[in-house]
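Run log // design_07
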């Protein structure tokens, strides 16, 4: 959950702004002023959420498939690791 904390705060802020705007709308506040002030805030938060989700989805990650040691003699050894990209990620 800690790696998605930035998105959780952004979604909470988005919902809070919508909730406050709905309460003000129902109480009959100046609706034009309300729309002009809330729309840029919601747009900014929405763009931030979309950007973070896109960046997290394309972040390359590797998965270790297998590994081992190949010994040629008692003085040398080679360590090998077989890796592959995790599904849905960019090439690492």
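design_07 sequence
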């Amino acid at each position: 959950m800690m790696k998605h904390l930035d998105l959780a705060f952004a979604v909470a802020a988005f919902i809070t702004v919508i909730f406050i705007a709905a309460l003000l709308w129902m109480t009959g506040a100046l609706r034009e002023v309300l729309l002009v002030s809330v729309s840029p805030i919601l747009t900014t938060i929405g763009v931030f959420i979309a950007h973070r989700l896109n960046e997290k989805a394309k972040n390359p990650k590797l998965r270790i498939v297998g590994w081992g040691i190949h010994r040629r003699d008692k003085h040398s050894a080679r360590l090998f690791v077989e890796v592959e990209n995790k599904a849905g990620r960019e090439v690492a």
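The helical segments are 5-27, 31-58.
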